[in-house]
Specification:
Strand content of chain A: 25-35%
CATH class of the largest domain in chain A: Alpha Beta
Radius of gyration of chain A: 23 Å
Mean pLDDT of chain B: 93
Number of strands of chain A: 13
Structural class of chain A: alpha/beta
Strand order of the largest sheet of chain B: 1-2
Number of domains of chain A: 2
Number of strands of chain B: 2
Radius of gyration of chain B: 18 Å
Structural class of chain B: mainly alpha
Order of helices and strands of chain B: HHEEHHHHHHHH
Largest sheet of chain A: 6 strands, mixed
CATH architecture of the largest domain in chain A: 3-Layer(aba) Sandwich
Largest interface: A-B, 28 and 25 residues
Oligomer: heterodimer
CATH topology of the largest domain in chain A: Rossmann fold
Distance between the termini of chain B: 27 Å
Helix content of chain A: 25-40%
Shape of chain B: globular
CATH superfamily of the largest domain in chain A: P-loop containing nucleotide triphosphate hydrolases
Number of helices of chain B: 10
Shape of chain A: globular
Number of helices of chain A: 11
Mean pLDDT of chain A: 87
Distance between the termini of chain A: 33 Å
Chain lengths: ~300, ~250
């Protein structure tokens, strides 16, 4: 059942149409990703959903509420962590949590929330003394303190080091496990692939694809490369006979099997039926990045910190 | 605790943690009063001041300076910085309303300026034998109304200024203009008639005269009450209308 419905969303700034007929729907309890190049209209789209921008055309509903018409109802059921939003330098973590709790009718226990986010030790620390990762986690905590049904996370991990980024990913999964629907804007492929149940790719203001990460990868004409060293002599002909296999290369003892779609399943089935163990097994698939590049027709930064 | 009380409390704590703001709003006006009071000639009765001393005349003016400092240097810059840094954008995603946000800033400024006023009255009374206001209730009323008018002007500056630095600049220009008409450099009774009439219609000119009247045991004139109320309604109303989160 859809909790966010976006239909034909259009937003113009002067002559320029930033968001052009964007349509998608997010199911309850999903982590739904919005991906796209810089300037594709991702942030404008979520700002329309979060009630911060007025749309020029189309409809938006969050839990049945039109963000433009009933902002007060929206802000009770949607929490948002947006880009370019900060807190006063000298506010302490605990004070910020207490303050934001006071904005809501039924806030959750903010101490428990800080514990869950690994910030319990920082209650008395001023905002300016927090690291980038801690600021982001506090921002997420503030978005969750009102016990929302939907949370919008825009470029959550931009500017974080890889370790902090992984910590935040686990956090997003835990949020979903609490029953909160997550709308995640990202340009990190790894993040989208790891976290999102489904995602939509937006390019130049239009939706170019909406699906699960796996289906998007498959639609890009997925090829898989399997490398392994067999534990016993192996006849390449048996592998070549598999319909999914398109090519086989041998490099010394190592086998390199290239195939379409989900070639790993028949290959491993064959090997186990022959009693051969695949040692040093590595599988390289088409990545979401490959799919993304095809969909948007440009190369995307895998680790860039684009803004 | 409700949002307004919590926000007011938090903003007050944040204000007190910022040394510059505290020095300007809480330390500088008493320091100025003490410096003026230490000049021997200012403690002598002057026939041209209707038997008052310079320090008696300056006490309400320094109180007005305290209000102006908060209203025109602290308030606009604070709000404009909050807007510039996305602190307001962050709050905009919550159920908190602009009225609560502005209300908290007004309450905080009012509390701080009341403290400054109390400190100034105490210093004036005990260090320089300036009598406490003869009409304390009228004095309090005049103070609150003048402060409300000035804070409304400060909020309007915050609403009009595109960024924090322009808010500071606009605030500073108004700060000196307002204090001029309040009589910081030429006291109101030394002003030319035209100048004094202009002063009557500025929030701080009307405010200082109301404080002065109440200190002497009289009710402020209706004109001056209407002037400060008018500024509060017009500037405050415009500030609320023009309020921008981003």
């Amino acid at each position: 059942m859809a909790i966010i419905e976006v239909d034909g969303l259009t937003k113009r700034y002067g002559e320029h149409t930033t968001v052009n007929g964007v349509t998608f729907s997010v199911d309850r309890g999903e982590i739904f990703g919005i991906m796209g190049p810089n300037g594709a209209g991702k942030t404008t789209t979520v700002e329309c959903i979060a009630g911060l921008r007025r749309r020029d055309a189309g409809t938006v509903r969050v839990g049945g509420v039109d963000p433009e018409r009933d902002g007060a109802a929206l802000r009770k059921l949607l929490g948002a962590q947006l880009q370019e939003s900060e807190l006063p330098d000298r506010i302490r973590v605990g004070e910020a949590m207490r303050l934001y709790s006071s904005f809501y009718g039924n806030p959750v226990d903010w101490r428990e929330l800080l514990r869950a986010l690994g910030l319990a030790e920082k209650t008395k620390t001023q905002f300016r003394r927090l690291s980038g990762g801690q600021k982001q986690r506090l921002s997420v905590a503030l978005a969750l303190v009102g016990d929302p049904r939907v949370v919008v996370l825009d470029e959550l991990t931009t500017g974080l080091d890889p370790q902090a980024r992984r910590g935040v990913w686990e956090l997003v999964e835990r949020i979903r496990d609490r029953g909160v629907t997550v709308l995640l804007v990202t340009h990190f492929m790894e993040e989208a692939e790891r976290l999102c149940d489904r995602l939509t790719v937006i390019d130049r203001g239009r939706v170019v694809a909406t699906d699960t990460p796996a289906a998007l990868i498959e639609s890009a004409g997925a090829m898989q490369t399997i490398r392994f060293r067999p534990s016993a002599p192996l006849d390449p002909g048996a592998l070549e006979a598999l319909p999914e296999v398109t090519a086989i290369e041998r490099a010394g003892e190592q086998f390199v099997v290239i195939g379409s779609g989900n070639v790993i399943a028949p290959v491993t089935a064959l090997l186990s039926s022959l009693g051969v163990e695949a040692r040093e097994l590595r599988v390289e698939g088409t990545t979401l990045e490959d799919a993304y590049v095809r969909l948007t027709g440009q190369s995307a930064g895998r680790t860039g910190d684009g803004s | 605790m409700n949002a307004l009380a919590r926000l007011t409390g938090t903003e007050t704590k944040l204000f007190l943690r910022e040394p510059i703001g505290v020095i300007f709003a809480l330390v500088l006006p008493p320091a100025l009063l003490i410096i003026l009071g230490l000049i021997p000639a200012f403690r002598e009765v002057k026939p041209e001041l209707d038997g008052l001393r310079v320090i008696d005349v300056y006490t309400p003016i320094v109180i007005a300076l305290g209000i102006a400092t908060l209203a025109l240097t602290n308030l606009p810059q604070q709000l404009a910085t909050y807007r510039e840094r996305g602190i307001l954008r962050r709050m905009r995603t919550t159920p908190v309303t602009p009225a609560t946000l502005l209300g908290a800033q007004l309450l905080m400024s009012m509390m701080v300026s009341l403290v400054t006023m109390a400190v100034l009255l105490a210093i004036a009374r005990f260090a320089f034998a300036v009598p406490l206001p003869d009409a304390p209730f009228a004095f309090f009323l005049a103070f609150v109304l003048s402060a409300a008018a000035m804070f409304s002007v400060g909020l309007l500056v915050a609403a009009l200024a595109p960024g924090a630095s322009s808010a500071s600049a606009m605030g500073l220009v108004l700060f000196f203009a307002m204090l001029f008409f309040a009589g910081l450099w030429i006291s109101r009774n030394a002003m030319h008639d035209v100048l004094r009439t202009i002063s009557d219609f500025t929030p701080l000119g009307a405010g200082v005269q109301s404080l002065h009247d109440a200190a002497a045991g009289n009710w402020p004139s209706l004109l001056h009450i209407l002037v400060v109320l008018g500024w509060t309604i017009v500037a405050g109303g415009l500030a609320a209308r023009l309020f921008r989160w981003e």
